[in-house]
Batch of 3 targets.
Target 1
Amino acid sequence: LTLERDLAAALAAGQLQMHVQPQVDRAGRPVGGELLMRWPRADGASVPPHVFIPVAEESGLIVALGAWALRQACAAVLRLQAAGLAMPLSVNVSPTQFRQPDFVAQVRQVLADTGAPARLLVLEVTEGLLIDKMDDTIGRMHQLTALGLRFSIDDFGTGYSSMAYLKKMPLYELKIDRSFIQDTPHDANSRALVQSMLAMAGHLGLRVVAEGVETRAQADFLTAHDCACLQGYLYARPMPLDALIALLGRVS
Ligand code: G
Ligand code: G
Ligand code: NA
Ligand code: MN
């Protein structure tokens, strides 16, 4: 309860931050990024999102938090574009946020308010979104796709949903969960699963991002099996947007 109250206060006081973790292509060139929320507390301690996001989900605060995240994502896309670094950015959308009756209207409004190009925004949703009200979810996804946004399935392979949704949904991308990447290439089962996910995505025409790439051996295995995009500590940790702009400015 204290955490919930502190989080609401931090949001109101403008103390939350959005960091961005670059995503790179097979040659290691940055091609996009994922926005990740950060809550640095006044006392110097930082509360990790795997602690505060579930609290926000429980309390409903995720709706306000998610609206803020979406606005931040639009601002970040515009700032990158202004720096000559136009690239798509992904933002996590929680199931509760997505199921708000006015979610599509909210997205339309934030695009109109900010002038951010929808084609540079990717919404990351999890398989948990697909457990119920599948038709409603798909309908919304089509409405948002019509606005120009794209969808990514986050933590792919860890949900309990069937794969039937893959043939019904307007998807752009799968993100292979880092638990599979972690045990690749040394563990034969993980290797087989990653290879199968890459092949399946290829046949479905979906882009794949491998999450949590930490070692050269993992990157080599993934690129050898046609993984288009890699994200992880091997390349960069999540960082403030200014740091990314400085980094990319030096590279290009
Ligand atoms: O940033 P990582 O370091 O610790 O994130 C942990 C978890 O928090 C991940 O599951 C991630 O998807 C989630 N998360 C991070 N930022 C956001 C956000 O802006 N919105 C939502 N809904 N989840 C987020
Ligand atoms: O659930 P989601 O995929 O949105 O969360 C991304 C999470 O993964 C964030 O917490 C981010 O900080 C973390 N992360 C990103 N790259 C790496 C990595 O290479 N290794 C590990 N262990 N975590 C990572
Ligand atoms: Na994510
Ligand atoms: Mn993920």
Target 2
Amino acid sequence: MTKKILRALAGETLPTPPVWMMRQAGRYLPEYRATRAEAGDFLSLCYAPELAAEVTLQPIRRFGFDAAILFADILLIPQALGSDVWFVTGEGPRLSTITDASGVKALKPAADVHETLSPVYETLRILTRELPRDTTLIGFAGAPWTVATYMVAGRGTPDQGPAHAFKAEDRAAFSALIDRIAEATIEYLSAQIEAGAEVVKLFDSWAGSLKGEDFDEFSLAPARRIIAALKERHPGIPVIAFPREAGPRYEGFARATGADCVALDQSVDPAWAAAHVQRDGCVQGNLDPRHMVTGGQALIDETRRVVEAFRGGPHIFNLGHGITPDADPDNVALMVETIRAMDPGDSA
Ligand code: 1CP
């Protein structure tokens, strides 16, 4: 039987949605913290195939999710293009900054990224052997705009100010940066698919700060280009796009980019999305990750509300954004149980 996630991505409406979670491997799990300590630091964990495969498998063992997402990070691409990347404990990522055309020119060519990223492909090959038969393996990359916001600012920023400033000062150089990241992303995701990824997801976590033409040019167009190239090289490969906080721009995003599924953040009303986004195909989402911290009856009620809202079409259950380190694993188990108990064929 075809895996549930692949059926939903192909447009099938299932009795209950398949489920996985953004950031399902992470600090809220004690077994993750133990493996990370063994690896030394976060980036070493990303480049240690056996350990990265182990942390990818941990949430599958614990919760029986329908998908495993490769353990890596969107900031490996900047590193593979020649930026310095490091993580400051308790603060987050730091990168060397790119603020003008000369910085963009100094980046490596897209075809060179495999040199740095080959351990990631090895992680996927291990996972193809070790995952349960009905679990789908998802590969991923950051979308060019989101990756560029980190490459320009050298860190995470609340408003992506430095990237907006670069774009305003030298739009041609900024476009060249977006193009270089898009080309690298095509190389990277293509190699992930060859190594065993059955679905790929593009994370445009900061898409919501792009407005009007900027959204079209720097979120939508690069997604369309990447998706077209992947589908040309790997016919039939399903792609999930996540233009986080796109608001009304979620409508039509799948049609415009060729994505098979659009992932929705928790700011989107499920009833609205069922009418305006799901009519184009599969949607993924969008329980507020706060429920993984607070639990209780509200978690059960909201989980049911999301499932009910999307019941008329193809749906993959997920959170609206990543689970946070303060989440309680018992709440994750309760969410999965609640979804699966909604199967009309299930006597429970
Ligand atoms: O152990 C640790 O302390 C590191 C925490 C951590 C983890 C577990 C980071 C640092 N990255 C990851 C893994 C990761 N990152 C995965 C794979 C695992 C999984 O999903 O289970 C994925 C898909 C990502 C994607 C990612 N990294 C995004 C896009 C999704 C999102 O959350 O919006 C982004 C923006 C990043 C950058 C990043 N990496 C890590 C942090 C703390 C951040 C955010 C930095 C910031 O903006 O301040």
Target 3
Amino acid sequence: GILTIGVTGGIGSGKTTVCRFFEELGAKVIYADDLAKRIMEEDENLKKKIKKIFGEEAYIGGKLNRKFIADIIFSDETKKSKLESLVHPAVIREIISEFKKIAREKSYDFVIVEAALIFESGFDSELDYIIVVDADEEVKIKRIMERDNCSREEVLNRMKMQMDPAKKRELADIFIQNDGDIETLRNKVKFLYSLFQKISKLTGD
Ligand code: ATP
């Protein structure tokens, strides 16, 4: 197989930024969110099932109506878990086939997967190491308000929906506390990049 590493964390923790730095260094990064979106737009069978749950409005001209779906699952726990039980297994299957392809082609020494819901979806069992990124709550709130141009209230609502960051930290193999500046974060990722290169050589993965 190939050495596989997951990157996760709550809203505003900086997981995407961590993954962009890995990419800059030459690592292969799979973004589960992008993959999910693609599958939800291309898999006709899945589309049919999604329309059954949410109605025709779930798509606009073949494109996923993310806002519409997000608004519904925000307050409907049943629909949320129905959607997840359709999408998560499909995304996991797709990622595993990517792993196999990379291993076959020997195109990379290791592969990184960015996914917000690694623990929640059970995908952690497919990964060798899991990096959890977090930051001080006030720092996260400020960064998200700035990035998404939204209110403190909105950020807090989205945070409430997510798994407790302390719980994620407990489940992590590697933990990044992202309270410092962007250069500090970049250096942490650089260190991990060379660590994973060494591990992949040691294990012959
Ligand atoms: P989400 O789950 O909402 O997508 P995320 O965990 O992927 O969040 P990022 O998008 O990587 O988080 O980071 C959130 C915001 O904070 C971005 O605007 C990013 O540029 C900024 N940011 C991340 N880390 C730092 C840092 N160390 N210093 C300053 N800004 C940062």
